[in-house]
User: What shape does this take?
Amino acid sequence: MQLKKVTISTLLLALTMAVMLTLAPGTASADNKPEKVTVIYGGSSWLGHYPAWVGMEKGLFKKHGLGVLFQNFYASSGRMGSLIAGDLDVASTGSISAIALMAVGNKSFLAFGTQDSYATVEGIIARDGINSLKDLKGKKIAAPFASSAHVLVLDLLEQAGLDPEKDLTLLNLKVNEMPAAMSSGEIDACAAWTPHFNKLLNMKGNHLLVNDTEFSLYKKYKLGPGPDLLVVRKDFAQKYPNTCKAFVKGYFEAVDMLINKPGECAQVLVKLTNLNMEDQMTVLKDIEWIPGSKQKALMSDPGDFIKGMQKLGNFLTRHGQIDQAPMVKNWVTTDMLP
Assistant: This one.
């Protein structure tokens, strides 16, 4: 059955329609203590959320006077929808969803950092007998729409000369639903990220077809299909500046711990990812963590990360996923950074 084309813009546009933001005046206390002692964080078992989990489990946020509530989402689109609706305060998101909301003019959030650079932990996993991208012709492939995996699939199919609307069936499926769909034969291939990526690879009859190092912007700019982006609700940042700065301190202390004590971090991360220690350590070895000391240089215009994000916005426009590339720098703040 041929699917109707669904773009990232159409998936996310609905998230902005009912959101009415009232910006509250700042209430920072004179002694720089957090004005609000509980922060609601939007995450998942994806590696980009490791610092928040480690910060919670190792008491790093508590040291700065904060309690952090970790709320799980299967995809960045749902996480960003909750953020702009006021249900989350801070989150890490795949930048695809953030750029799509920027493209429709949503001004209710700000980007303030990027915590990691990764490769080889996201890609397309196929059943036996599919040995090249061209072998996907006539097959069913699944990806979570409005995600980095979705963008990776669109890019790789273009490189292989395949039209996702004519040459195969592209299905919208959550990553946690993919193992069952692969086992039953409902789909022939899927695009996923760790830890589901690792679990799918370990299933009998599955193999890695291609990973995110084949993404066109990665080959040219070392930019993945959906770089991780730290975001904050704009009215929360304005009302609770000390709380935000305390969160950033604890967060990047957790990043430092991931760099210097990965084994100790892995022991608490397995509770989030449900990976065994061996697989968890393998994932950690594939991540380049970016410390707090480097954030301002990356996030300031014209920092390398902001330039890369703009190229990604242009890429999404060219592939018909958003109508017009936003000026990414207009959504960036460095006020929270050390």
Q: What stands out?
A: Residues 16-30 have pLDDT under 50 and may be disordered. The CA atoms of residues 158 and 164 lie 9 Å apart. The longest strand covers residues 38-43. The chain has two domains: 32-117+227-331, 122-221.
